[in-house]
């Protein structure tokens, strides 16, 4: 491996994802840089650094783009981290969030300004707000769905109140404070002026001052162009009011009475009339949180009310959002970016071009640009994007596929149907899940688009008779049938690219088939719009409105897919739980080795610098949880028998006969087996709570018995009680013993799947990425479980042990660690040794050559092998697969297990010497039937994963 400080900064060799928070800061990150270097990492890959919502554990709820989050550290801390990395030839890739901001924190000054000044705010165009909805009460207002009850009930309960701080009036609700538009202060200051005038006379200094302030408020500058004058005027008025109240105790007393009076008296409804008038005078409209789904008029990040979309397609917004990252690149502190939720951008290609230009101003060499992008089956990243690739979900899907027994797909589906009673095809589940999201969580966004579509229909005599209701229905159906997250038609496009045309036509025609009673000319109208087929005679502004509609549709299909598929469908349909994963297809139960090779060859040609990850902060299960559950594809009948037995054993634990339902119960057992810790639940005091939280998330995401929007508290409590009882040794001793026995049956196969994942992440085309502590076992569930604190001291000690052992005898160390896998040290061994081999043979791994190697013999179907690099300097990666039958009795299948099985080395005639890089052993190929082979009994003598390096004599 390259020594400290000798690596050239450039393309990443390997990345390590850090989840920064108040519990793990920039200072902490700097402290572990030496450890990461020894592990084999070239680039730290950090979660967002910008100021986020108070208490944020992830950083995606940005409130200020101009500063580093104080909980993470300071600019000086970032400089120190950058220096520590640069001294070792390492780099820093930073996650950036260009789609949205958190609006639920007072630190977001831009949003506060919008709430205070409405359409006159300088930040009005910063956020994506629909200011002119048809509902009169919302015209010119922003809907704020923050109330826990109906507005009238909240108002009359005293939950809303006015306070006065430092010369400024605010509207309080609990711990939150909303701004009050200064012109509306007159509703408080006029009663105050009357009280002061009646008490001290209209000519008193206090009355005259209040009258002057009232005149200023009556002529308040409300236009956007008057923003600077308005800011100075507001500061002056606040200062004058603060001075008046501070200097005159009688005025302070009068003001307190006015405020007390407007705040009303619970139990006396009419006492709140004045407060209602004040609230209604604001540029925002308070509403129950449930109203958001149908009436919210600002675009959100998915369906999260607290995250408002920003219009980063505007150059001024782009500059504001990227001012600080631009400075980091110019100073050489950052060598690349990861773009969060690229599909949420109006025109991703345009945005990425701007970001590329910004990043290339840096002093740290060619920048790395990665995008968070979910690719559907066989979908390709647009080749005109100036990026290095994605963050690797498609790689997870490919590796998962080849480690699953595709030949057992029919048996796995049969077991699923038998255990759950579910008979729907995945295509129908996906369609219904998308449609449900459009009818509930994203109904407001659909309504906005349907209104635009209705207006477009009036542009031509062929479509003018379509009704809003019929257009709304047809649009909902088309969006429910989209086979990918989105298309990428641009505003300036003269025609739609073939890849996008195929997607659009497929969606429209699938929608038409599913809705035989809907007028098909509606679907044709939508297809024509999305495919840019304009009728003759349109005016330029009409054509522009049609293009804007297309772009807006594209921004919505991504959230529909994410919420419908990832956050609904995957919790309803999971014949093999490990494949219900972001970027995957839960109905594609496995890949052949040949299919895997084709995917990797294409990756080598097209995106050789994309990340090859094993887990992210968004995956549904940790890398090793998923690897263990892959084994179920090999033993579906054993899984069925185990679940049926457990169902019978746990009958007495049910709160009632129907709870949990069969689908939920299978989900619980899958989570229990997948996340089962070494030593069982008793060895992990947090396991029960973590399992319960994951199950609660699962049933809410499924949206069948309960949901986040409409919770059935009784059902949720009953499922929680059942889940707790399952891991209670006093109540479930026999059951837990049975689960332990089942896990023991599949544990070694799961361990070997995990090692195979590591080897494939390192050796296949792409940049290997290690997620947050994943160099040891990662048996986590979905977020926030996968963002738990990481014990780096333990990991550093494990790495030190591994390095010492490997220096003495790598083969013996590997054998010893594999025999006792519970500690996870065997995974650290493979991560470290594989990354060292990659560093020593970097040219081979980063080159375009990927040559599949055939397997021969008795266990040929249990092997994946391929060569990287040019002849004479090649590295051959080999891993076993489908280990359940091979690891009977919990023993690792090594050595003689693989007798009569070999891999064929690609021509030309190989060098005389070969070395297995993980264990350091020499290997000698043999000639047979006109080809050179390596015996897998020798290659896999110690581990069933290997990196075989050609060594020129």
Query: Which spans have pLDDT < 50 for at least 5 consecutive residues?
Result: 1-8
Annotated CATH homologous superfamily of the largest domain: Maltooligosyl trehalose synthase, domain 4
What share of the residues does DSSP label as strand, in percent? 5-15%
The radius of gyration computed from the alpha-carbon positions, rounded to a whole number of angstroms, is 31 Å
Helix content: 40-55%
User: Helix count, per DSSP?
Assistant: 32
Strand order of the largest sheet: 16-15-14-5-2-1-18-17
> Domains counted in the coordinates: how many?
5
Global structural class: alpha/beta
Largest sheet: 8 strands, parallel
CATH architecture of the largest domain: Orthogonal Bundle
Average pLDDT metric: 94
Number of strands: 28
Shape: globular
Question: What is the CATH T-level topology of the largest domain?
Answer: Arc Repressor Mutant, subunit A
